[in-house]
Amino acid sequence: MSARVSPSSGRAYGIARVTRIWGIGRALIYRHRAAPVPPRRRGPTGPLSDIDLVDEIRAVLTASPFHGEGYRKVWARLRFKGIRTAERRVMRLMREHGLQAPSRRGRPRGPRTHDGIIRTKRVDEMWGMNLTGKRGLRATASPP
Q1: How far apart are the first and last CA of the chain?
Q2: What per-residue confidence (pLDDT) applies to 138?
Q3: In angstroms, rounded to a whole number, what is the distance separating the alpha carbons of residues 14 and 97?
Q4: What pLDDT score was predicted for residue 136?
Q5: For the segment 124-144, what is each residue's pLDDT rounded down to a tens digit?
Q6: Over the stretch 90-114, which tens digit does the pLDDT of each residue have?
Q7: Where in the chain are the domains?
Q8: CA–CA distances in Å: residue 90 to residues 56, 98, 111, 119
Q9: Tens digit of pLDDT for each residue in 47-82?
Q10: Which DSSP string do the residues of 33-100 spell out, in sequence order?
Q11: Nearest-5° angle of CA 85, CA 79, CA 68?
Q12: For the purposes of burial, counting CB atoms within 10 Å of the CB of 39, is it exposed (0-12), middle (13-18) or buried (19 or more)?
């Protein structure tokens, strides 16, 4: 209504006049005037849409001789094919579509390999500890 032109003056009515006549606030008009814009990701768009890029990722994974590959290798192979995209985008798409490589969830929680107590079988027998072992402490006996 505010875009309409008055027949007597030849000018637009204006928002203030229309809202005063209708008995509503101007904020309500501005809120309903703006069309809802769906949220978009910021930044430039890549060479492919997300759906097309997922298809390319699947093609890279099926062409691979290995069981599972991480996003870094997939990203590098995409670049080798001539598809330049962001590394984080490849990671996000692989996570969203369940294409990530299988990974272990921490160390196995089994019994400890060594309890820290060493008793020798003979008197004056010397023992040494290997603290660099990955599975705990290893006791090694040295000859007398």
Answers
A1: 105
A2: 47
A3: 51
A4: 47
A5: 777 666 666 555 444 455 555
A6: 999 999 999 988 877 777 666 666 6
A7: 1-39, 50-96
A8: 10, 12, 39, 56
A9: 888 999 999 999 999 999 888 789 999 999 999 999
A10: HSPPPPP--SS---SS-HHHHHHHHHHHHHH-SSS---HHHHHHHHHHHT----HHHHHHHHHHTT-S
A11: 95
A12: exposed
Contacts of 44 (CB under 8 A, 6+ apart): none
At which residue do the structure tokens 């030849």 appear?
Answer: 10
Structure tokens, 35: 């069309």
Place of tokens 């107590």: 117
What's the CA gap between 100 and 96, in Å, rounded? 9
pLDDT score at 57: 95
In 10 A of CB 70, how many CB atoms? 13
pLDDT given for residue 106 in this prediction: 74
Two tokens, residue 20: 């005063």
How many CA atoms within 13 Å lie on the side-chain side of 76?
A: 5
